[in-house]
Amino acid sequence: MACTQQKCRRNNQNVSDNHGEGSSTADLDLRWKTIKQLDQRLEIECRIYNANNLEGPGENSIQDGYTFEQMILVSQNHLNAEKYIGSNLRDRMTLLLNHMMMLRGEVSRFIDLKHCFSLEFKDEGPTRCPVFVMMIVNGKTNQEHKKLYSGVIRHKEVNACAFGALGFYLFQRFHEDGEDFPRFEDKSDQFPIKLCKGQDHKSSIAPSTKIDAVHRAFKLAGVKSKKLTHAGRGSGARDAEMAGASVDHIKRMGRWSLDTVENVYLPCLPCTAIRIMSEFPEQIGCYRLPRALVTPPESLLCMVFPGYDACKESGISDVNSEHNTICGVGFLRLLKELRVIILQDAVLLRQQNSKSLIWRNKIFKSQEFEAFARDSLQAMATAQVTAALEIRRTMSFVEERFGQIQNALVAQARQVEQLFTASAAPANNDLASQLAAINANVTSLRSEIQAMNSRFTSARVIDGGRVTFEQAQPSTPTPTANEEAQSSSMKSPNHNSVQDLWDEWTKRMNGHPSIRNLNTKYGTKRGTKWRRGSKVLITEVKRIANERGLGDDDAVQYLDQKKM
Description:
The chain has 564 residues and is mainly alpha-helical. It has helices at residues 2-18, 25-52, 68-79, 85-101, 105-110, 162-176, 187-190, 207-221, 231-242, 247-254, 260-265, 271-277, 298-301, 306-313, 326-352, 367-453, 481-489, 498-506, 515-522, 529-532, 534-548, 552-563; strands at residues 116-121, 129-136, 148-152, 457-462, 466-471. Among the domains are: 2-52, no CATH class; 68-289, Orthogonal Bundle (hpI Integrase, Chain A); 457-563, no CATH class.
């Protein structure tokens, strides 16, 4: 059913492509809308079909794959196979490469030796860190045949090391199977050689052969998975996420949706993801591999890939030679790294997988290898003890150093507190004096406000315009003798009308100031009762004027008429 859905989608795409020319925009939009509806309906029918045919919900889910422990078991089963050791080493290599590099199944089938080379991550830690790099120029996700790259370093677990698995597979081909060592003088000879060979070294392994090999290996290890050729891609991505790799690192590692920057400018070797996939911390400088502490002697190295020494003597390993290519020199550098890796990994693999047929080779029975194995095992045991002691010594040093830092911080805090107190004292005194001055100003303003409030008079008008009032006795300036005389001369008992009182209040009479001006300047304490009642008069005049909409003079006349 899934295949039918994919075929329908391809047919719909072909129909759209063939009828795209000469069609209007409206026709194209209608056609695409119809195709989209058909695709959605087909997807729903596929789900219903799968449910009715009892397809398990775990298929094609995150459960569909293998665990890291199951991968180790498959790797050991391949290594300990009682027959067909060459095919088993090939399947072991593809399993680990597909997992660590998150490769699709068809990628490893079509890779040539010219696409394989080695680099080195600098300053990764106390152990030198070579990198196996694979140039990917084919595959379903690389239809444009761009040059993409994937890499892997030596794994902390020797049975999961894809770099070492590559070395043992090439060792089997060039040492046990009798395959001729590549002649790098001739470009036509080195380019067609396949990494995963089929019937011969120039033909790819058949897809059915690879699927059958994966199926048998999974069945032997108890792995239940519907995915076979692409199992490593999904399981590798899940392991990377479980180990803490970010989505961006996983996308770069698996080459999912790479943009222009990554395709053109970046090497597409996500160092962080590569470290995490090999079970090392993601930070730089933490790469430490105990099995790589001892370097094999030169006499032992010469036994592995002797064709490399012949190429080196003839100058083929020199990239500046006119007969060489960059790919050829890169592959020779890879072989140089693999010589060391094979011997170092063989020490532990022989202990853990003693039944493997590969140990029958004379190299692993030689005195040189036995001596190297003893030195390596002793170095690894000593390194573990030394590492534990180093951790204890470092912890005590760190504890002591933290104590010193804490004491220094306490002393600095006290010194800062003393400096702050000393520098803040003058500021505090200045602030206190400023607050005292502000308090004095507030007291003075309060007194002035009270003096102003004491000048207000409350009064009321009763029967027939007769005024009754109560006046406060504020503290007022003492008038001069001349002003007192002027005030006395204005005391006239002949004011019988409101108009006379209003004129005396508002106008300057006989060269003397008005009562209003005198009251404003000296208050209402001095003067006759007429002057004391002037405030009531002006209040009544203003009230009448406001109520009846009159002017002040009309209001005065109204009061005179009312009084009469």
